[in-house]
Amino acid sequence: MGCRDIPTMLELEQQHERMIINEHRRNREHGKKKKPAPMTIAGLCRKANAASVKAGWQDEPRSFGDLIALMHSELTEAFEEFRAGHALDEVYLTPAKPNKPEGVPVELADAVIRIAQCCGQYGIDLEAAITRKMAYNETRGHRWEGKKL
To answer: pTM for the whole thing?
Structure first.
């Protein structure tokens, strides 16, 4: 897949909007209850931070470095799931903790939640930062700066 095959941010947003509109139409036609609107990135940051406060994870102050280390630990856990031979899309349960989902997708979700929580705690507008960075990335050349990986 070349750079030209990758959709722009605007194209992705338009595609997402069309999917939501079509889903609402199908739900009306089939008498289904309306699903809640998808969560925004800002909403995810607020919700993740509120859950952290409620669970007591902010009772004692953590440094920004601590939060970065925790984000990194979730990515390491995703890598360890992969190293253990689990498929990238596999979510599974274990007898030891039958209600706790495990797997690469779950650990990636944990990483996103940790990032969102940090942004919520520190008032970082992650949605704006992502939009701005993706727009900048669209201006860059193929495999910019000659990087191999």
So the answer is: 0.74
Residue 1 has pLDDT above 50, yes or no: no
Topology (CATH level 3) of domain 39-146:
Helix Hairpins (1.10.287)
Closest C-alpha to 107, from 69, 65, 73: 73
Residue located via tokens 């495999």: 143
Domain ranges of the chain: 1-38, 39-146
How far apart, in whole angstroms, are the C-alpha atoms of residue 1 and residue 128?
27
- Look at the block and give the residue holding tokens 């942004």: 119
Tell me how far apart the alpha carbons of residues 138 and 149 are, in angstroms, rounded to a whole number. 18
pLDDT band at 149 (very low <50, low <70, confident <90, very high): confident
